Amino acid sequence: MRRGTKVRAMRGRKTGPVGQCKAGSVKSFKMGETMAEITIKDIAKQCGVGVSTVSRAINNHPDINPETQRMIMQVIEQTGFIPNNSARNLKRTDAKCIAVLVKGIANPFFSSMIRIIEEETQRSRYALVIRHVEAREDEVDVALELEKEKRLRGIVFLGGRFSHSEEKLNKLKVPFIFSTIGVDISDRLGKIDFSCIAVDDKLESRKMTEYLIDLGHRDIAFITERPEESIGRRRIDGYREAFAERGLEVREELICYVQEQLDHFSMENGYITAKKLLESGKKVTAVYAASDILAIGVCRAVLEAGKRIPEDISVAGYDGIELGEYYNPKLTTIKQPIEQMAKSTIRMLLDVIAGREEHQQIILPAELVERESTARMCVLF
After folding, report:
1. Phi and psi at residue 179, in whole multiples of 5°?
2. What is the pLDDT of residues 346-364, one digit of tens each?
3. Regarding the domain with residue range 13-92, which homologous superfamily does it belong to in the CATH classification?
4. How far, in Å, CA of 220 to CA of 361, rounded?
5. In this predicted structure, which of 16-30, 197-211, 282-296 has the lowest mean pLDDT?
6. How many DSSP H helices and E strands does the chain contain?
7. Domain 202-336, second-level architecture
8. In a 10 Å sphere around its CB, with 0-12 CB exposed, 13-18 middle and 19+ buried, how is residue 132 labelled?
9. What's the confidence (pLDDT) of residue 93?
10. pTM
């Protein structure tokens, strides 16, 4: 059935309590007529059945009559519609759809970005598909599989790492943008043929570490994911640069990696990792965590150890999530421009999709926000 046609009412034969669609009874509209926004209710009406029956047919429910299911699925196929498993509704195969692939979806930082991206896509009349990418999954491989399942117009990669070959990226058939990817794009501007937007993670991490050093701290623990992960690597690099710039040595034993079996950026992981550090007896006067959500977990471990924040141990995070502002004590952090980054992400992608703009690579500034969780180190004589 050609695009631009519409389903006429079907005459269903009633067989008991459930009506059945008659095979071959789907008719086309005249040329020039447009296809209405058909919902699951419309399909049910055409087939002479209830909405719940259509839903059972779509989901292969065992309670549906096989002939009824076959007839319903025939109508769906003939009308050019496919079931949307997320909404349990029916969408057009040519729907305007954007996929957001999130690595670290448990982090509230991404929750805020997704909310803003969703608002922007709705204004532009695009549907949104959100896919959580596990820590050990390759986000581009996931995107390639998703392209096969959905008729995508564009892809947003949130989080993750940049270690993908041009050959693999070129397999993607739709425009895409890397957002908050944790890669140093400052020396690659104009040299890559896709869009990306981020803060300079190495620079901002160095800024936080220098701030703690200026407060008199030298025994600064750093909690992050392993360095093969892009954000972890960039933020570790900034941490090391700050020490080198001040002529200080990094205490390698104070670089602590999160638990691999847990979500890398979660309060639980921050708590467990900091608890192990504190139980080791290593001298620590400040803990800098690679995300606010980790830092909040660190705070609990510090307090459970009988220490005071910031009098005994200062704690700092990264991201600038809202929770950090309302935590007690309020969390010192590197605040990323979440709203600006999210809006720019989707607008840049939509511009490329529409052919209004070429690919762009943008670095946004972040802000060091000093709050109650850090203090100048007291020196006792």
Report:
1. -120, 130
2. 999 999 999 887 888 899 9
3. lambda repressor-like DNA-binding domains (1.10.260.40)
4. 33
5. 16-30
6. 12, 16
7. 3-Layer(aba) Sandwich (3.40)
8. middle
9. 41
10. 0.73
